[in-house]
Amino acid sequence: MPLQIRGTRAALARRIFAAALTLIVAIGVCLATQDNTSASIRAARTQRLNATIQNVYTDGYQRMKHDELVAARDAQDRTIDNIYTAVNPYGTNTTALYVYFTTEDATTVRYTVHADGYPDYSAQPAKDSAASTRHEFLVMGLVPGVSNTVTLTIDGPDGDSDTRTLTVNGPKLLGEEDVRLEAPVPMDDDTVTALGQGLFAIIGNESNEQDFTPLYDANGVIRAEIPLVDYRWDRLLEDKANGLVWYTANSNMLVALDTVGRAARILSIGERFSIHHDIALDENGDIVALATANNTTDKSEMDRVIRIDSHTGKVRELVNLSSMFAQYKAKTKRVGYGGSDATWDWIHVNAIQLTADGGALLSSRETSTIIKIDDIEGTPKLGYMIGTPAVWRGTPWEQTHLTKVGDFPDSGGQHSITVVRDPSLPDGQYYLYMFDNNLGKSETRPGFDWAAAIKGVNTVDSLDAVESSGATSQFRRYLVDENARTYREVKQFDVPYSPYVSSVQELDGGRVLVDSGMQGVFGVYDESGSLLGQYKVKLTGAFGLVYRVYDYDMAAFFLG
Prior knowledge:
The protein has 560 residues and is of the alpha+beta class.
């Protein structure tokens, strides 16, 4: 009997184990099926959303929505007691509110957006900074998914004021951005006030889903969501002469919004070039962009500069760096962006700044060099280089570098260079600041000794590998003297390490906005380099980074 009991128990145990195993497998299959189904649903949603956004960025859609808005708006008299409103009428800003009304006397308008649980957001529309009897503007800053109270303050010519209140349900975001950013180092009230109504644009949070550019206020609350076809903004260009703001909606499309969010110009540049990394506005209101020439024989990438006519979209190639620096290129290994040899990313230009003398400064990540090109829209030629000459040793350009004055390390893989034209400086001098990633590494020059070329440079591009070493990146500001052919460092401070991407921007009052993109953090520093406040962005997608963060005050456009 005892043996029979043990056998029965063993058989029962085997049956229980088999049943449990079957259940586990069934649950696994069910979960896998659910995951596959969920992924399919998300992919279908993204596809539908992308098709909708592609349609938004067409002239036909913009004309249709404008005609609909004007017909509805003008069907009645619109006074302060019958204000016309429409949420996101042109499809270009999810949380914007279009407002229209007239007044008998010339007045100006201010507004405050209130939502329970969030700080108030106040601004003055750009078009209402001067008194008028016709008021048409965008209210920026509805908090998504909750009830918003918008208070309009109408200021009369004699100092008297009137108010009207609008109640608006904030629309749901189309993307998956945080409504309010995490703030590891919260800003104090004085700093928030000093930063004013400017908006932080989170540019290029590389996503597996649909692409958007969210804009956050100084309290870290989302106040705008700009849909994109794909790719990202490279930056926002403010064409104040024409009342437009330009951005890239994908790598082949430029869009200009007017003051009420209408896509007034939509330019497709065709398939010959793809825009990458940065754009600038020239004196004629045309766009100068960094580009890759598609379908070239050697598949070289990120080595062209083009000009795009802002009315016609016609493209002209200005600079072919493959031709200009052919002897240097021949020294490099064929490696493309992402490590594949299908393309050749030998110089990787990541920023452009137009200069007052008709030239341009280009930031090359692969060579850790800042390159001055003279007469860029005429007959381009090399002006000079800033950086370590060792990279260019054995080429005709080794002797073209400006002389460094002082004992400071040159930049390693710098990003977001910015030229400052200071009227107090004599002709031939300017300030130049940048995010110095402090990374000495080049996929196309694997044998180059970066540690010997740049004192103290980090040579490891993994955040995990350098975490214990305490590596940092830097904000750096140079004074460049083209007459003496020198540059010297006038300011620098350490910032969170980011081996790639990232940006810096000088703000009013000596403050500096810094995005350490690989860590997904951006913060504001005082003029001595002390951190005043910091935000954390939820990283998504395969790359997990924030390309750049810039503060845009929108002063000439949406805000006053």
